[in-house]
TrEMBL record:
Keyword set, alphabetical order: Glycosidase, Hydrolase
Record organism: Fundicoccus culcitae
Pfam families: Glyco_hydro_1
Stored InterPro entries: GH (IPR017853), GH_1_N_CS (IPR033132), Glyco_hydro_1 (IPR001360), Glyco_hydro_1_AS (IPR018120)
UniProt family annotation: Belongs to the glycosyl hydrolase 1 family.
Annotated protein name in UniProt: 6-phospho-beta-glucosidase
Active site: E372
Keyword Transcription listed: no
Keyword Hydrolase: yes
Amino acid sequence: MVFPKDFLWGGATAANQTEGAFDKNGRGLSNVDLMPFGEKRFEVGTGQLDPRQLPEGTVNPSRVAIDHYGHYEEDIKLMAEMGFKVYRMSISWSRIFPQGDESTPNALGLEHYRKVFQLCKDNNIEPLVTINHFDIPMYLVDNYGGWKNRQTVDFFVNYAKSLFENYKDLVKYWLTFNEINMVLHFPFVSSGLTFQESDNRQQITTDVIHHQLVASAKVTEVAKQINPDFQIGCMLAAGSYYPQTPNPKDMWKSILDDRDSYMFTDVQVRGNYPNYYLKQMEQKGLTIPFQTGDNEILAENTVDFISFSYYSSRVSSANPDAGNQTESNIFASEVNPYLESSDWGWQIDPLGFRITMNQIYDRYNKPLFVVENGIGAFDEVTEDNQIIDDYRIQYHKEHIQAMADTIEQDGVELLGYTSWACIDSISNGTGEMAKRYGFIYVDRDNHGKGSFRRIPKKSFYWYKQVIESNGANLSNE
C-alpha cells in the first residue's frame, strides 16, 4: 500500500467562493463581496482599482455564489457518499465578527459553523479549517486600513481565539492564512489592499506581510494554549519555477522567483526571516515594521505542517517575452512548450507536482498536506443529466500518481489530499461559474442564473473509487 492507511482524502472549498448568504444572520461585508465579475475583476484584485468606484449594478458573484450556506447539509452528504475523510473549508471572518473589531462574536455565525462541523463529524469527515481564506471585513479596511494597521493583528487573534474556544471539540486541523504569498499577486483579494498613485506600494506590502506573519505566529501560540493537540499549518500557493534555458541568468531568475514564495514559509516553518530577504529589504530601502518581541513570537510559534496549492509549474526567464506568456493572469509565466494547457491556459504538469513536493520537503523536512489541486474546465450536461468529465479524471489521476511516486520513491511525508474544488464554485481569478473544478456540478451560470441543483459528475464516482481503494485504483474503466 503506497498511501498511509490514515491518509486524509477529501476536497476543498472556501467560504468566499461557495458560501454566499452575504447578508444573512448578521454577517458583515467582506472584501470579496466587492469583487466584480467581468473585465474589471483583475484590476480590482490587483489593487489598482477601488471596487467602490464601480458603477451601480455591478455583478458581485461571491455574494450568492453556490449558496453553500443554505445547501451545506446536501453538500456534505454528497462528500460523505464519495467517502471523504477530510473536508477543507474556510470560515467567513465577517460572519463571526461582522465589523472585525467587536469583542463579542456573532452567535448566529458561531452556531452555523458548529452545525457544519458536527455534520462532518457525524459523517466521519475531519474538518480542516482555514481561518483566513482571502477574507477581511470591509469595516476594518475602511476604518483601520486593514492589514496595513498593526491593530488588525489583534483583531485577527481575537477572531481566531473565538474559533479555537468554540470548536476545540470539533476541529483538529487548522490553517492560518490561505496562500499567504498571494499578497504579492492579488492584494485586494488576499488582504483587502487598494493602492493610490502616491502610495509606496512596496513598503505597504512589506508592512502587510510582516503583520500577517506575526498574526499567524500569534494565532499558532493561542491555538496550542487552548488545545495542545491542535495541528496548525501554513498554506502556500506553490508551483516550482523552471529556468527557460540552461543560461545561468535564467537559472538565477528561477531561484529568485521561487524565493518570492518560499520567504513566507521560511518564516512560518523556520521561525525567522531568511538573510536573502533581509538583504533585499536593505537594497530596496524598505523597512520591516518590527515591534519588541516579534522575533521571539516568530521563532517560538512555528507550524506543525506545510499545506499548499498546486495547479501548475512555471517558467522563469531573465528576458521575458510579453508575447510568450501563459494565459493565467495572476501567476503568468513563460509558456512551457513541453506541456499541454487547460481551457484557461493553465499548463498541466504532474511531474512538476512531484518536483514541487520534493523541493518543499527537502527545504523544510516537515509533513506536507496538499490542500488544493485541480483543473478548471467547461462541463456539458447531457440530456439525461450526466457530466462526462474524463479530462478531469485524467488530470487527477496523473497528479495522484505523482503523489504516490513522491511517497514511494522519494520518501516524502504526505498527510492528505483535498482536491480543488470538490464542488463547482465561483472562480477566484475570473469570477466565473463556467470555470468548473468540482466533482459535483452546480446549476449556476456566469450571470447568476440557475436552480442551484447539485449533480454528481462522472469524476464523482471515480474519486469515490480512488478513496475506497486508498489510492490503489486509479482506473477510469
